[in-house]
Amino acid sequence: MNETNRHLDNSVNSANAVSSANSVLLTRAEILRWLRESDEKKLAELWQQADATRQQRVGDAVHLRALVEISNHCIRKCSYCGLHVDHQNLTRYRMNTDEILACAHEAVEFGYGTIVMQSGEDYGLTKTFISDVVRRIKSETPLAITLSLGERMNNELIEWRKAGADRYLLRFETSNPQLYEAIHPSLPNRQSDRFAILRFLQQLGYETGSGIMVGIPGQRFDTLADDIVAFGELDLDMIGIGPYISHPDTPLAKKNDIYTSLDSQEQVPNSELMTYKAVALTRLVCPHANIPSTTALATINRETGRELGLARGANVVMLNLTPVHYRQLYEIYPAKTCITESAEVYRQQLLKSVEAMGRHFGVGPGGTKR
Ligand code: 5AD
What we know:
Elements: H1 3-10, H2 28-36, H3 40-58, E1 61-71, H4 97-109, E2 114-119, H5 127-140, E3 144-148, H6 154-163, E4 167-169, H7 177-183, H8 194-203, E5 207-214, H9 221-234, E6 238-243, H10 251-254, H11 272-285, H12 295-300, H13 305-311, E7 316-320, H14 324-327, H15 343-356, E8 360-361
Parallel strand pairs: 1-2, 1-7, 1-8, 2-3, 3-4, 4-5, 5-6
Residues 80-81, 171, 173, 213, 242, 244-245, 247, 296, 332-333 line the site of 5'-deoxyadenosine (5AD).
C-alpha cells in the first residue's frame, strides 16, 4: 500500500472520523493534512480516490442544470458579493413570469432535467409570485425545480415546497461563526442562522444543498476542514464549492479587518488547487452528493477548470440560461464565465470533453439517489 492509500486507509479506524451514511471515513486531522499537502504525487492519489468514489457512488453521468438568475435585487450586505444592497451603480432587474417560463421551455428544448432559479435575497419576489411560477413550470414541463433565493421565511419555504419545488440551495459559506458574522451582517431583528434553515429545508423534504467559498479572507485551514466535516454531518444532497473571487465594488475588497487579515500560513488561498482539494475531500466525505464543478472554478481556469473539477469529484454542471442582457448584471464576482456565451454552444463543447473523459450527460432530473 502506498503512502497516500495508507493516509486514507488509516482514517477508517480512527476516532472522530467524519462520515455521512456509507462514506469513506476521514478524520478532521486527515482532512487538514490533505488541505496542507503540496506533493503532487500524493495529491494525484487524492484525485484518484475522489474520482473512483464519484464513479462508484454516483456513476459516470454528468448532470446538467439550467441556471436562471431571476433577480439581482438583494437586501443583504454580504461583504464579498457584488449584488450587496449598497452597490449602487449596478442596474437591478427582476424577471417576470413569462420571461422565466420562456427559459424553462428553452431548458426542456435543450434536454435539461432541472431548472435552478437563483436570485439575491429579494422580497420583491413574493411568496405568491414564486409559488405561481413553480406551479406553472411544474404543469407545463417535466423539470425538477431548484430554488436558490436566500434566507427566506419559513412560511415561504413551506409554500414553495407545497407548490412543487424539489430542491433548495443555500450555501453556509463558512462554518466559523465569527467569520460568518463578520462577512454577513444580519438583518435588523433577524439573526442569520443558515444551519437552522438547512435543517428546516430537510424537514420539509427538499433535496437540500449548501456550500462554501474557498479562500475567503479570514478563512483558516482548520475552518475549511470544519466546513468539510460539516458537509458530512449535515448529510447534504448537493454541495457547491468555488474559489472566492474578489469583487472591487464590495466592502471585503476595500477593507481588511481583524477577521479578514490572517497570517499567510493560516489564510487559505483562494486558488484553483485548494478548490480541487476541497471538492475531492468533499466527495470522500459525502460520496452520494451531487457536487457541481462550479462557474467560479471555471472562471479562474477557463480552459480546463470545469473538466478538472469533474475529474476530481464533481458530477454536475450548471449552465447559464439567463437572458444575456440580464446575465451581465448578475455580477456576484467580476469576469464570471458564461456572461455572453450561448449556453447551447458551451453545452456542446462540454459534451466533447465529458465524452473524452468516458462520461456522458445525465438524462432526467438527476436527483440524489439514497
Ligand atoms: N466570489 C466567489 N463566489 C461568490 N459568491 C458570492 N460572491 C462571490 C465571490 N465574490 C458565491 C456565494 C453564493 C453563491 C451564489 O455565489 O457562495 O452563495
